[in-house]
Amino acid sequence: MAIAQRGLKAHVAGGGKVINGWCSIPSPITAETLARQGFDSITVDLQHGLIDYQAAVTMLQAIQGQNVPALCRVPWNEPGIIGKVLDAGFVGVICPMINTREEAERFASACRYAPRGARSFGPVRAMAVHGADYAETAQEFIATYAMIETAQALSNLDAILDVPEIDGVYIGPSDLGLSLGCKPTLMPEDKRVIDAIETIRSKVKAAGKTAGIHCGSGEMVRDVLDGGFDLATLLNDLRLFTNGVSADLAVARAARAPKRQATY
């Protein structure tokens, strides 16, 4: 069943799972195409992708045209860009490199209106998309996901989860691996990284919050969701495109088995 535009948090709170798509290519066409594939949500990446703010807005329009909830990963924990992506109409924010309680508080405050935060009021597009009561309803349906991706964040996880306006955590396995002295990869095999991921997941769920993670394969997405995560991202659009092209090109270049008749 499709998740309503503003229903991502409620879906997870009710025990639902989320397979998340990820946009790094600055194109409303690829964003729209990804949104048509059956993902439960789509994230537009302003941190490591090639997307600027204006491109993100046009991509958001394309995604919302398919009635898929749209999240945004912002470049950094900075209230200006956080406010702008929310004013554009995104229903949640993933914020990188949240390492302390204070950083989590600043991030959460930028996503909430007073008295729960310090977000400036001016939902230039969001009110048109989400309704005239946006000032009230946004306080509840906007999702705030702090990225836990360093050893420092791991050591401060309890304090970060104690921030009331943080709705959940999103694990970046590559940076987490680097911080722990391991190879950066979306498919970790080192026990130190695997144990850290499980520690984060268990603490997040014990706190009654959403546990999300970026994954390097469809199999990993399936496994982490079965293992207790709420949200899992399948690679990104560029990686999926590259994987598909590489696989078919390899078939096209492969030597045909002897005595096999051509088929079309």
N to C succession of SSEs: HEHEHEHEHHHEHHEHHEHEH
The largest sheet, given as strand count, sense and whether it forms a barrel, is: 8 strands, parallel, barrel
State the CATH topology.
TIM Barrel
| pLDDT averaged residue by residue | 96
How large is the share of residues in beta strands? 5-15%
Secondary-structure-based class equals alpha/beta
What is the end-to-end distance? 37 Å
User: So how many helices?
Assistant: 13
Topology:
Elements: H1 8-13, E1 18-23, H2 28-35, E2 41-45, H3 53-64, E3 70-73, H4 79-88, E4 92-95, H5 101-111, H6 126-130, H7 134-141, E5 143-148, H8 151-155, H9 157-161, E6 168-171, H10 173-179, H11 191-206, E7 210-215, H12 218-226, E8 231-234, H13 237-253
Parallel strand pairs: 1-2, 1-8, 2-3, 3-4, 4-5, 5-6, 6-7, 7-8
Helix pairs in contact: 2-3, 4-5
